[in-house]
Amino acid sequence: MSIGSASADDPIADDLAAVGALRALADQLEDSAVERALRSGWGWAQIAEALDVTRQAVHKKHVRRVASLGLDLRRRNNG
């Protein structure tokens, strides 16, 4: 079965749509949590450790968005 042939009643299509929705929700939750952590004085290294990713990965994913919010992103003593 090709992607285009999935019907609206197809449970596989429903499952995949649910996975997509969960990913979008997880991204929104991560964005919010990272922003709150930065506003609370956490450094990128602390956030990365909590998310079980590298500092570089979390920084690359979030730096532009949080910078556009006007957060002070200068390196902190705590990481």
How would you describe what is shown here?
The protein is mainly alpha-helical. It has one domain. 65% of the residues lie in helices and 0% in strands. The chain contains three helices and no strands. The protein has helices spanning 11-39, 44-51, 55-68. Helix 2 packs across helix 3 (55-68). It is elongated.
Please name the defining characteristics of this protein:
single chain; 65% helix; 79 residues; mainly alpha
Write the layout of secondary structure elements.
Layout: H1 11-39, H2 44-51, H3 55-68
Helix pairs in contact: 2-3
Helix fraction by DSSP (H/I, runs of at least 4): 55-70%
The Rg value, from CA coordinates, equals 18 Å
Order of SSEs, N→C?
A: HHH
Task: Give the integer mean of the pLDDT values.
Answer: 88
| Ends apart, CA distance between termini | 49 Å
Note the beta-strand portion: under 5%
Class computed from helices, strands and strand pairing: mainly alpha
Number of domains: 1
Q: Globular, elongated, flat, extended or rod-shaped: what is the shape?
A: elongated
Can you count the helices?
A: 3
Largest sheet: none
Q: How many individual β-strands?
A: 0
Low-confidence stretches: none
